Amino acid sequence: MEISFKGQRALVTGAGKGIGRETVKALWASGAEVVAVSRTSEDLESLAQECPGVETVCVDLGDWPATEEALSSIGPVDLLVNNAAVAHEQPFLEITQDSFDRSFAVNTRAVIPVSQIVIRQMIERGVPGSIVNVSSQASQTALKNVAVYCASKAALDMMTKVMASELGPQKIRVNCVNPTVVMTRMGREHWSDPHKAAGFLSRIPLGCFAEVDDVVNGILFLLSDKSAMITGSCLNLDGGFMTS
Ligand code: NAP
Q1: 113 in ligand 1 pocket by Cβ < 6 Å?
Q2: How would residue 70 be classed by pLDDT, with cut points 50, 70 and 90?
Q3: How many CB atoms lie within 10 A of CB 151?
Q4: Is 149 an active-site residue?
Q5: Is the CB of 20 under 6 A from ligand 1?
Q6: What is the bridge-based pairing of β-strands 234-237 and 172-179?
Q7: How far is the CA of 218 from the centre of ligand 1 (A)?
Q8: pLDDT tens digit sequence for 193-229
Q9: For residues 177 and 218, is the Cβ–Cβ distance under 8 A?
Q10: DSSP code of residue 102
Q11: Residue 55: CB within 6 Å of ligand 1?
């Protein structure tokens, strides 16, 4: 299935590393103009070198006013990927207010100002749009020691559905992808212990974790016209875990 994003402009958050970075590269290779948003400037510089023409914005998305300011003159965007997130491992009894606030600020709250800026422009221009929020299998699976992360992603699933419901009349589709473990920096931090990984893998019918490309392909599909009738969906990219 060929997907072209020629003539479209995309914005990807958390674009410095992992899934976000590969999403930028895939969108760029498919003809989109891309704005890459992340918080480590070296990552953005190397990305712009790899993909000439990619615009970069360096901001901490956990800071709402700074995010609004950084994106205030971003211009028209047709495709948005809200991907940035953090995952802190903490037993429930050790969760602090700071770690809760920080996680929700990035994983859930930041989706609001970024999407508001993009959506207002779409509505002003009278164009359709597609938004993909990168959620997680953790939104639906109780994983020990990451209660805050799981809750932030469960909230993101529901925000996705309400956004889809409100924005459908404007032909703005909003979906999320819900991957299982992917061995990015985040995945390695939590799943490098082979014993722990084996227990999880045994519950995945396909018997493997997801590759970054599996997630990127899901995101591109939901961004594209190939999914024109899909909105408000959570696309499980979990090798069958949730259905087993
Ligand atoms: P990653 O390798 O840790 O990359 C995350 C990217 O987001 C980094 O570039 C990071 O920048 C950026 N970011 C984090 N906090 C930010 C902030 N406050 N402001 C701006 N940028 C920020 O993670 P990943 O595995 O690619 O994860 C991408 C998405 O997939 C996340 O939403 C994650 O929850 C989801 N996901 C991941 C897995 C997995 O196993 N990896 C599974 C399911 C879902 P810095 O490096 O500068 O912090």
Answers
A1: no
A2: very high
A3: 17
A4: yes
A5: yes
A6: parallel
A7: 17
A8: 999 999 999 999 999 999 999 999 999 999 999 999 9
A9: yes
A10: H
A11: no
